[in-house]
Amino acid sequence: MSTFADRIINFNKQLEYRGILPPGISIMNPFRDNDFAFDVSSQFYNKYYNDNHPRHLILGINPGRFGSGMTGVAFTDPKRMINQCHIPYNGPITHEPSSEYVYEVINAFGGIAAFYQQFYIHSVCPLGFTITGTAGKEVNYNYYDTPALTKAVYPFIVENIQKQIDLGFETDICFCFGTGKNEAFLQKLNEEKKFFKQIIALEHPRFIMQYKSKTKQDYIAKYLEKFNAAII
Asked: What is the layout of strands, in order, in the sheet containing 198-202?
């Protein structure tokens, strides 16, 4: 019998966007764009998901360049992969504030093994996007940043949320990272597709780290309250 690890790894392996994107926007697929993300993420999933224990989904927006764009694991940058998950990583060492916050939550929950036995984090759109910024550098882009991009990737999003559910995750509650556009999109999509009985939105880790760092512990407490209520 396959495990969650087997099914997640196979899901990541098949991820490919074949549609047409609006001009100036590029797809970011860590499992095909570099030589280390697929291997590192596979080690991660084999370590923490090598079972069939029931888990709830947590959906962020889409992968960013410095977190899962490097490691292939949502909200896990190279620093956390090495120092927290204790998995070897040979790619560039980057830092993502969202990952820093998420791992503070994970440790407050009871540690990495305990958290990942109950939850699986990925994204509404499982692949990321970039554009060339005003300084000529590549920057992150979100699936909802323009109506044209949202329309272009909508079928891809629907298909891959269903594929993630089909891996065997619980559908009574889905957690959403983002109480703005990400929540609005996912709530509307869920009304149409009936993926989950309930969606619980939490402030996005990046928003907390950028704008609410002084009250970070309050947000961590809120996360823990919502997570613990879901697994009772």
From this structure: 119-123, 56-60, 173-177, 198-202
Residue 97: how many other CB atoms lie within 10 Å: 16
pTM of this prediction?
A: 0.94
Closest-CA residue to 162 (of 178, 145, 174, 144): 174
Q: Which region holds residue 178: left if phi is over 0, alpha if psi is between -120 and 50, else beta?
A: left
* Helix (H), strand (E) counts: the chain: 11, 7
Domains of the chain and CATH, by start: 4-9+20-230 (3.40.470.10)
Residues facing residue 26 across a β-bridge: 130
How far is the C-alpha of 77 from the C-alpha of 182, rounded, in Å?
Answer: 21
**Tokens 């927006």, residue?**
61
Average pLDDT score over residue span 80-87: 96
Give residue-wise pLDDT tens across range 85-123: 999 998 889 999 999 999 999 999 999 999 999 999 999
pLDDT 10s digits, 189-225 = 999 999 999 999 999 999 999 999 999 999 999 999 9
Rounded-to-integer distance, Cα 223 and Cα 198, Å = 16
Q: How far apart are CA 219 and CA 59, in angstroms?
A: 17
Spatial distance between the Cα atoms of 181 and 193, rounded to a whole number of angstroms: 18
| Helices within 72-197 (DSSP H only) | 78-83, 97-109, 112-118, 147-165, 181-193
Q: Who's near 228: CB < 8 A, 6+ residues apart? A: none
- Torsion on CA atoms 216, 60, 97, 213, rounded to nearest 10: -20
